[in-house]
Amino acid sequence: MTTLRLLVYNIRSLRDDADAVMRVIKSAEPNVVAIQEAPRFLRWRATAAGIARRSGLVVVGGGRPAAANLLLCGLEVEVEHQADVLFSKDRKLHQRGSAIAAMRLSGAPFAVAGIHLDLAAEPRLRHVRELHQAIDREVPPDFPIIVAGDTNDDPGSRVWQALQTRGVDAWASAGTGDGITSSVAVPRRRIDAAFVDPRLTVSGVSVLNTPDVRIASDHRPLLIEISLSQ
């Protein structure tokens, strides 16, 4: 059995301590990282490449074409297909989207869709439907999908219920403690999450809370261990 280490991390556009962000990612020793609020403006490609290099990883895809969702992976991961998707946009709201990739680790197939959903309730739910349509279009059916990112919503909401129609809430399955990820300064909400295809097994979930985490961003990252089958 192969274990995938997936890190989910909203880095707040590197507006806090960028060096600490890299240290947090590297110390987690992830195979794949789903980043939200990645750089997407001036020199965003170079900045994304720098995040990957300094974290000991490579860029899979995302960035500006995926509305600041960025996927990174280690060299041990084989990328078979990658797609950047933009969702429908409402006036006066930020563009939202997803970075999606079908990958293999030690030959075992899996896919990751990184998300950062809207602050407004109606587009947030609409974008889940658009996400599922994109997954059906971009991910081969034999690649179990993991949807991971910042939901901007809470467990039990309509958005979480929609996400759970296709995936298991990783924290509810194998997490310990309260799972709070936001914010670092005033921890009170579990809005960062991974929804894992039921064909996979979640073996462990932890919210990182090191000294570097507390200065790197306004979110705590989520580290999920998932058992993959070949």
From TrEMBL:
InterPro entries: Endo/exonu/phosph_ase_sf, Endo/exonuclease/phosphatase
Nuclease keyword on record: yes
Domain Endonuclease/exonuclease/phosphatase: 8-219
Domain of life per record: Bacteria
Keywords: Endonuclease, Hydrolase, Nuclease
Signal peptide, first to last residue: none
Statement: the UniProt record of this protein carries the keyword Hydrolase: yes
Record GO terms (molecular function): endonuclease activity
One matching Pfam family: Exo_endo_phos
Official protein name in the record: Endonuclease/exonuclease/phosphatase family protein
